Amino acid sequence: MGGIAGMISFSETLPDGIINQMVAALKHRGPGKEGYYCGTAVHFGTCMLEVGTQKQEQPISNEDSSLIAVVDGRIFNCIELKNNLLKKGHIFRTDYGQEIIVHLYEDYGTDFLNMIDGQFAFALYDLRKQEILLARDRVGICPLFYALKKDTIFFGSEIKAIIASGQIALKPSPDGLYENFVYWSTSGKRTVFENIYQIPPSCLGVIDRNGNVQIQRYHRFSDYQGLSIQGGADLKEEIFNTLVRSIEARIQGEAKGGVYYSGGLDSTILLRLLFRMGLTDLPVFSLGFYDSKIDESAFQALGYKEGSGEHYQVRVSAEDIINHLPQVLRHCEIPLYKLGPVPMYLLSQTAQETGVKFVLSGEGADELFYGYDIFKETLFRMNWSLNPSWQPQAQDLEPIVPPAQRGNIYLSEA
Questions:
Q1: At what angle do helices 78-87 and 100-108 cross, to 10 degrees?
Q2: N or C terminus of the chain with fewer C-beta within 10 Å?
Q3: What is the per-residue pLDDT across 346-391, written as a single tens digit (0 to 9) for each?
Q4: 57: left (phi over 0), alpha (psi -120 to 50) or beta
């Protein structure tokens, strides 16, 4: 993980020092090293993690410095892409995999976004075109926010970087809050704050010299053609092979990695796949709870039987959650509906203290395989909106409505 921030204006003089304040607000994302580019129209800044012995420098530039970029994230197929670029005569100054971004853009324009497999957010300044690109990965793993004030655009990996500029007021957005409370997420470029926007997943923001921001979608999951699957056995094999390839892509390199292991289905599948691949010595990080009703330590012990690495278990009490909640809210920058992020914050602290630079986890499996009740609730809402007279059976509705809301007449009557 790292952090990026910047200011852009082709008509206003950019003040000195503000970019340093913005990057300072992101230091928890990359405490190893900082880098800056300060031109006439653009100020870029970044903070990075120091990984192994890799030579890392940001901002990144191409051979003639006509392209400048700051990048957060990781490109999983960077070795293959870099080898192809080297054959075409490109020169690389660092061992940093993200350096491929400026060279790919040089050769392929924005089409290169569909060539890379990874989790990323970046800003790229094309000095020849006098144009800036803000882009985010297909799923939206790496965040990227922006705000406008008069003729200046501010952007950052977190909203707090934009606020640290001292130029943007922080005000709640009623529309953003409504969407967040109903769907657990805002839609499009909206956030829970007024006049602060996000680059949506699979999207590219193009900023011209007049300060106009045009959001373009470069990828749609709906464009994928269906797989030629013949029954459940083929589907299971395809999922298995895809997971193995994904793990292999993520563990390459010299960075020290670990695994978050809850004892649930998704993380257990991940852990057992790692064991099957011979990776039994990775450090494993688990949460335990003093409340036995929610503690899953027994499942963790069962799944980790063949592990030979260190197993770190963080025990969490109700007092721990209460004490750390304000700090977690500050990092999340959105309302919380459940307290799960607080124990995860404590688990992340432990992982960081051991020197781990990245972790594999089952996060996202519930979204991909429809494991959350929110998806069923959304289906109910859609059916109601299409047919107001539609009456769901009470026994179907009850399991997906939180206990505190089951007396709400607006949920039980059309």
A1: 60
A2: C
A3: 999 999 999 898 899 988 888 888 777 777 777 777 777 787 776 6
A4: beta
**CA 47 – CA 28 distance, rounded (Å):** 9
96 contacts 60 by C-beta, under 8 angstroms: yes
For residues 4 and 68, the answer to whether their CB atoms sit within 8 Å is: no
Domain assignments of the chain as residue spans, ordered by start: 3-222, 232-367, 373-412
Phi, psi at residue 273, to the nearest 5°?
A: -65, -40
Alpha-carbon distance values, 47 to 6, 24, 26, 249 (Å): 12, 8, 7, 24
Cβ proximity of 243 and 40 under 8 Å: no
Least confident of 27-36, 108-117, 159-168, 345-354: 27-36
Topology of domain 232-367 in CATH is Rossmann fold (3.40.50)
The CATH code of the domain at 3-222 is 3.60.20.10
Cβ-based neighbour number of residue 379 at 10 Å: 13
CA pair distance 318, 321, nearest whole angstrom: 5
Query: With bands split at pLDDT 50, 70 and 90, how would you rate the model's confidence at 408?
Result: low
Place of tokens 């278990």: 313
128 Cβ neighbours under 8 A, 6+ residues apart: 66
